[in-house]
Amino acid sequence: MVPTFPVPLLFLQVLALQSVWSSAPQEPKVQSSPQTDISSLHHPTWSLGLQLYRSLRIDGSQTNTFISPLLLANSLLALEHGAKGPTAGQFHDLLGITKNDKAVGEVLTKALKYVREANGTSYTWHISSALFSKQAPKLKKSFLEKLQTHFGLQHVALEDAQKQTDMEKLQSWAKSGMDGEETADLEQALETKPGAMILANALHFKGFWDRGFYHENQDLRSFLGTRYTKVPMMHRSGVYRHYEDMENMVQVLELGLWEGKASMVLLLPFHVENLARLDRLLTQDRVEKWLGKLNSTSIALSLPRTKISSTVSLQKQLAALGLVDAWNETSADFSTASSLGQGKLHLGAVLHWTSLELAPESGSKESMHEDEDVEKPKIFYADHSFIILVRDNSTGALLMIGALDHTDGPAIHDEL
Ligand SMILES: *[C@@H]1O[C@H](CO)[C@@H](O)[C@H](O)[C@H]1NC(C)=O
Ligand SMILES: *[C@@H]1O[C@H](CO)[C@@H](O)[C@H](O)[C@H]1NC(C)=O
Ligand SMILES: *[C@@H]1O[C@H](CO)[C@@H](O)[C@H](O)[C@H]1NC(C)=O
Ligand SMILES: *[C@@H]1O[C@H](CO)[C@@H](O)[C@H](O)[C@H]1NC(C)=O
């Protein structure tokens, strides 16, 4: 099944070129440039991440939704190695893998490697990825070794127990993988049948700015999200890459992280509104255009100091993108993972825990907070819901995408 989403620009260009060439088959094949163009969103994590994000948000029931497309893509690729036939084909379509093409796998592995190396400079992050199995037939040793060594996924067998206990076990696994951060509860109960495999990712992310913020913990302001709360704001003036889309009424701002290994992009509507309108605008084409128009601008910037926790189950969204057979006990084919598995071994859930911290610190102890001398700065006052993207600078991968719909401070009553 082909998902019905806007086709990336590059793909259209390639199609156009191919149709020109079809009349001249002698022409040499186009060589894609080995140099990654950072402002373009060719990395496969963008297509997957934006589609999943929009799909998670479409009915408005999820708030403070975050995922890491890079982690997710990596773990789906790991599981793909256990699949065969149409089940494997649907993983390929989802991840953009074409026949005999190792590129996607290499690109994902490379990005994850860079990201691990940047840990401790531009950001710290704690990540855990695992494949849980519930009363499943024995998984092949070669498959489990590949999961562990190549993709960094542990394998954990869930014993025959109450559902409640499975979820508790997963939750405590996630919490320890996130260095003890509090985890949000999953909205629906987890229902697993014997033979189910559960793919789980957990991460805690804290970025360090290239230039730190001024903040007062006592200085509480109102955050006008889907709930109104009090939150400390952090402030800084300086020159940032910025773009104002007048037509769509959104400000786009790029914040570099320490040592330039990653950056955070914020999308803030001009006015207080819930993010439904902006969520629908988030196509790959549009984000690419926005990033291409960023321009050095004087900004007076204020951000909430906060922590966002999110737990999502992605079955519905992945199925909508064409991953259909993997969930079906009858048609799932994970016979590379286990020769005994046919007709039983299936995907039971894909769970994702995320915690992201917005804090004032820069990566450098010396340049803590220092305002730049700027004239007539534009105001970027993030006291209402906004979208956050984090991308790796060296590979262009989308590390995280999510929404801050509300902060978790004390609620404001009867003020308005
Ligand atoms: C990042 O570094 C911290 C220590 O600074 C470590 O505890 C953590 O496991 C590292 N994360 C990854 C993904 O390697
Ligand atoms: C990304 O990396 C390049 C080269 O290392 C650097 O010139 C650029 O400033 C970085 N971008 C950001 C946003 O830090
Ligand atoms: C950036 O701003 C300058 C001066 O305002 C302008 O000349 C230039 O075209 C802008 N660049 C982009 C990419 O919008
Ligand atoms: C599972 O697959 C079988 C065989 O392809 C099909 O008949 C059945 O409808 C599927 N079940 C679900 C719930 O999709």
Automatic annotation (TrEMBL):
GO cellular component: endoplasmic reticulum; extracellular space
Keywords: Signal
Entries under SMART domains matching the protein: SERPIN (SM00093)
GO biological process, one term: collagen fibril organization
Domain spans labelled Serpin: 50-407
Recorded GO MF terms: serine-type endopeptidase inhibitor activity
Position of the signal peptide: 1-22
Matching InterPro entries: Serpin_CS, Serpin_dom, Serpin_fam, Serpin_sf, Serpin_sf_1, Serpin_sf_2
CDD domains, per database record: serpinH2 (cd19575)
Presence of keyword Signal: yes
Protein family membership: Belongs to the serpin family.
Protein name: Serpin H1-like
Organism: Sinocyclocheilus rhinocerous
